[in-house]
Amino acid sequence: MSAAGALPELASVYWRPRMTAERLRRRERLWTLTTVAHVVPFVVIAVVMVLLSPVALPVSLAALAHAWLIPALYARRGATVTRSLTPAEDGPERVSLGLLGDLVDHDARDLHARTGLVPEPGRLGTWLVGEAGALLVGERRVSCWCVRATDPEDARLPSGDRVAHLLLALRSDEEGFATVANLAFSGARWRVRRRLPKRQRAALDAVAARSTLCA
Amino acid sequence: MSRLIRMDGSGHTTLAEWTAEDPASVEAAVAAFRAELEQGSIAMVTRGPGHAEHVRELPLDEQLVIMRRPIAGG
């Protein structure tokens, strides 16, 4: 990807340090620590309660449920970045998909038709770009980024244009793109996968298989 | 023939077409390009697979220049 010009939108998030591979790793580790910090206390409570008194088993089970549910809710929030928005009318949708098709190769076009996501290899990992966000797929981890094109004043953008907006921005400045976007979740691939709509899991699997082959 | 298009609610709209041999078409394309920039659009050209570049002046030798809206974290 070209780094010739920084993304103009960086001016609107001037307080954020520019994302780099190192900063991304730090944020990923922070997400892991956050997950551990949510899970471990509840698991400890569950064990201690049942050891203190078997009568407290329901409390232990409730604590274990919390240990499972809280990370699952975070992952769910992350997976929503790939959701499809309400489509525009047929005509604009077709036109926008034609333009998007011109920007990507046959495999990406095919994957988009099946899943609504466009794969895009980058320096930080492989991206899966949707209408309202993108997944950054690593070897075992997925980071979920919430970002979207701003609509014109008089109309809503059709789905192909939404993806094309993000794709062009990503291609022009990947690190800038990751700076502008909001990181909604970062964690194990399986956590995100199970929260994705079924048709989009194929996109994640396809990209993950390529990541494993390249590793 | 080069084209300047804008992604919008219709899918995309062709704002201008030009050839280097036709100064009037170039002038009209440059005017349309500047008007779009003033509206807050961002101009992009593709540079082969996986590459795109933000341009601030209309690149007259490009076949396709795409105007997009700004993106923002959701």
Topology:
The complex is a heterodimer of chains A (215) and B (74).
Chain A: H1 21-52, H2 57-79, H3 90-103, H4 106-115, E1 118-121, E2 126-129, E3 133-137, E4 141-149, H5 159-172, H6 174-180, E5 182-188, H7 189-193, H8 198-214
Antiparallel strand pairs in A: 1-2, 2-3, 3-4, 4-5
Chain B: E1 2-8, E2 11-18, H1 23-38, E3 42-46, E4 52-55, E5 64-68, E6 71-73
Parallel strand pairs in B: 1-5
Antiparallel strand pairs in B: 1-2, 3-4, 3-5
Strand content of chain A: 5-15%
Structural class of chain A: alpha+beta
Please report the two chains with the greatest interface, counting residues with C-beta closer than 8 angstroms to the partner's C-beta.
A-B, 53 and 25 residues
How many structural domains can be distinguished in the coordinates of chain A? 1
Cα-based radius of gyration of chain A, to the nearest Å: 20 Å
Amino- and carboxy-terminal Cα gap of chain A = 20 Å
Q: How would you describe the shape of chain A?
A: elongated
**Helix proportion of residues of chain B, in percent?**
10-25%
Count up the helices of chain A: 8
Give the C-alpha Rg of chain B. 12 Å
Query: What is the string of SSEs of chain B from the N terminus onward?
Result: EEHEEEE
Beta strands of chain A, count: 5
Class by SSE composition of chain B: alpha+beta
Q: Would you list the SSEs of chain A in sequence order as H and E?
A: HHHHEEEEHHEHH
Mean of all residue-level pLDDT scores of chain A: 92
Strand content of chain B: 35-45%
Largest sheet descriptor of chain A: 5 strands, antiparallel
Mean pLDDT of chain B: 95
| Quaternary class | heterodimer
Short description:
Chain A has helices at residues 21-52, 57-79, 90-103, 106-115, 159-172, 174-180, 189-193, 198-214; strands at 118-121, 126-129, 133-137, 141-149, 182-188. Chain A has 215 residues and is an alpha+beta fold. Chain A has one domain (18-215).
